[in-house]
Amino acid sequence: MPQSDNFDHNEIYSAYAAGTLDPAFSLMVATQAALRPSVERAVARAESIAGAFLENETPTELSDGALDRAMALIDSIEPERRDVTEGVMQAGYALSEILDLPEPLRSSALEACGQSGWRALSSGVKRLNLDTGSESTAELYRIEPGQMVPRHSHSGEEYTLVVTGGFSDETGHHVAGDLCVKDAADTHQPVGDDDGVCYALAIRNGGLKFTGALGLIQRLIGQ
Amino acid sequence: MSLKNQLDSIDERSHLADCIQRVADERCKQAFAELFEHFAPRLKTFLIRQGTDEAAAEEIVQDVMLNVWRKADQYDPQQASVSTWIFRIARNRRIDRHRRARPELDPSDQMLQPQQTEQPDITVNRQQIEIVVRREINTLPDDQMDLLKAAFYDGLSHAAISELFDLPLGTVKSRIRLAFQKLRRQLSEQN
Questions:
Q1: What is the CATH number of domain A93-204?
Q2: Residues A123-141: pLDDT tens digits?
Q3: Is the Cβ of A35 closer than 8 Å to some Cβ of chain B?
Q4: For the domain with range B3-118, which CATH number is right: 1.10.10.10, 3.40.50.720, 1.10.1740.10, 3.10.150.10?
Q5: Among residues B34, B37, B125, B151, which one has the fewest Cβ atoms lying within 10 Å of its Cβ?
Q6: How far is B52 from chain A (nearest CA, A)?
Q7: Is the link from the previous residue into A2 a cis peptide, with omega within 30 of 0?
Q8: Taking a C-beta distance cutoff of 8 angstroms, is the pair A156, A171 a contact?
């Protein structure tokens, strides 16, 4: 999780568990949970707390025939099929790498392959824009061995989670599960490790700081 | 919570877990009806608390329960209690409504994949976490419990909780941290 002192980790886990955390950041938490047992434990604890409150919730009567409607829905669904989606076709040679990514990132990446598609930033670096439903930007970087990510300007903060492989930058060497936090002033040009491809998930919120007036935790319904 | 109530809860949880197994293994509609009768009204309350209007809440509840039916074979009683599993489906459904998802990809799928266990020796023991959380949460003082609910169930930011409860932000943070740490300590002692 972020090394920044501005973050109260509990606040992130509780919002994630309840579903009010920004969707791009939720993707990051879920991905890091797949890479770091300590994060997975915290997430499990938070979700368990939420589940306990659901268990003790007071019931609100449903409208007449609600159960009948549910039964009708069950009868109407078709058997599950595993379709090869257009995204899988588009993934091409990187498909096996993408299939190795943890969920929910894997599905998000496959879907994006079919939508925005990969964009090459340089000969050894490409980037995939992910649709999380957030106003924040979520991008998956693919960095070939020894390649440097071109300098990119961004306002606000940027969070980069190493998902596979590793990279080095001015703050050191980062491997799968590590999270780097940069603010607008930092020039961040990671160089991929020599021994394999590096996938990294980068989230940024443009000019709006993650902490501040809007905050990291945005209500999804209402307001 | 009295010991009898605790035991009743455990029986009920185990019964609900059986219902899910019967839905998964036998496609049993009776079992599904029992799950529906137990969880649908509670999910409705949860959604209305979040500000969803009644009609939309019922629609989402139907959607969540449909996913319970469809995903029943993915429920692992070793990993989570039924209420946590169903809560996650509802939580993910809320998030996914805001995505511009393509119709042929089911957004619920990506969030419901079982945690990958490439290294089984370091897999987190979610079952243990569930047991301890449910046991300990009822022993928390009311002031901690209320804040925990606001944070972990309603999903409010600490600043919003501070305003809502008319408490200093620092107090909110430290009470929640205390409660969360207590649960973690209990868990470490189990290991």
A1: 2.60.120.10
A2: 899 999 998 888 888 999 9
A3: no
A4: 1.10.1740.10
A5: B37
A6: 7
A7: no
A8: no
